[in-house]
Amino acid sequence: MKKRITQLVLCIALIIALVLTTACSTSSGSKSAEGDKSSTTTAPKTTKEPITITIFGVPTTVPETDPIIPELEARLGIDIIIESTGGDESLLVSRLAGGDIPDVFRVTTVSNLSSYYRDGVLLNLKDYMDEMPNVRDMFTEQQWARVTFDGGIYGIPRRPEENYNCWYIRNDWLKKLNKEDPSTFDELMEVAIAMNEADLDGNGKNDTYAISGTYGRAVSTFGRGAFEGFWTAYGVTNPETIMIKDNKAVLAVTLPEFRLATEEINRFVKAGVVDPEIPANNGDTLLEKMATGKAGICYGAWCNYSKIEQIERLTSVFPDAEWVPKRNQITTSYGVSGATKSASGNDAVYAINADLVDQPEKLDAILNMFNYFASDECDLLLSFGIEGMHYKIDSNGTIVKLDKMNELTYGWGIQFLGRPDMLYCMTKFDNCAEYIKYCATEIPIYYHYGQLVKQPEGINVPDIESYILEQVSQFIYGTRSMDEWDKFIDTLYKAYSIQTYVDAANETLTELGYIK
């Protein structure tokens, strides 16, 4: 984000500095240098000339009016070019294939990171950790282990986030139906049928499906798919994910409990209470259905349904609509409905171009930048904005949100090492505080591990995942009979060689300490 005025000022300053250097004595110059050193011992290092650093793959668009990156540039004495991709890593693959390797780039999964490691495009950070002590100390040994290959460190992790997810329900509809919050699947069926049949949207049409949501990979739905509450009630995670059961890595879909969960969902489909368009839904179409009375029970996150702008949308048609977290969890003999979550906490990592060993000044600036990212001072900037503009700190040391903080809707995308999540969420989204705490502290968590597994040679994990999701959808909606389930699992082993993938998962997760 270069600014011509800034460059002109820097040039003038450099000329003045050169004149003063020739005019002053050697002893005076030495004293000045020593003074500069002592004044910057606790501040980030700056360079004489602004070095331009490209950060590629930022998952959100940073607007031209953004004040955060310019402030970061000013503090570090560098220029930062942000290249947003919306999280589409295929754009990075194209760049790397063409030899146009960004200085710093976001990698969405450890599996992808291991592939780039084999291609030789990643800088080994092991010998540079002392230059980034804040980064080194921010993460645990296990977090570092997931970006370590053959003894080298090839990525910088991000801090984990809390759980945001749970079932949401139209509480006002429960009241109208004189129903209690269900705690078993039979009770949930009773409520769902009542929601379908009561014409609660008042349009005189039989067009309400009580249960709706989205469907897809856990990594793309952020664990917020329509059927998360069903999977977890049977003690399993999403069909395509790797779980640990009885201290062994397994593919969730191959477990007997997963078949039971699928049969349970199919029972609800046959009763006519499940939205047939779930596989095609996206976040926007789902909100529209929720707002217009076409659904009454949806799995999701407080950040999907409870922010001020979302509440406004969800009450735009029915002002009395109450979308709230479901407080009674569905219980079976296999588990309690909860949330699925990647064990890595936050799958995306940042990597540095290996070629920068030949540009030591730029590399030094990048290492210094990451070290600053990991400081408390930078946490305040990237999490909350600029003091006095976006927040203030009261006499008790509490961060107080100011109105302009609401303008930083893209801020999550430039929190390069994550954030102090509970503090951030409770401060920025104070209207959701009750729900934030509920999801973080009371919802059972079921972990999956696939994002940590190094993809074995000859195995195409995305193809495996796509096939599983496609087939499970067919079993759910009855276009493929449950009588063919065993044949489906047999195909996974024979045609997709999932045992090789599971073996790799056991090896990786043992190395990382998840399997003892």
- Return the CATH topology of the largest domain: D-Maltodextrin-Binding Protein, domain 2
> How many beta strands in the DSSP annotation?
16
Query: Cα-atom Rg, whole angstroms?
Result: 26 Å
CATH hierarchy class name of the largest domain = Alpha Beta
**CATH homologous superfamily classification of the largest domain:** Periplasmic binding protein-like II
| CATH-derived architecture of the largest domain | 3-Layer(aba) Sandwich
Trace the largest sheet across and list its strands: 2-1-3-13
Overall outline? globular
Distance between the termini: 48 Å
Low-pLDDT ranges: 1-42
Q: Approximately how much beta-strand content do the residues carry?
A: 5-15%
Q: Note the main sheet.
A: 4 strands, mixed
Decide which structural class fits the backbone.
alpha/beta
Number of domains: 2
Number of helices: 22
Nearest-integer average pLDDT: 90
Q: Which range best describes the helical content: under 10%, 10-25%, 25-40%, 40-55%, 55-70% or over 70%?
A: 40-55%
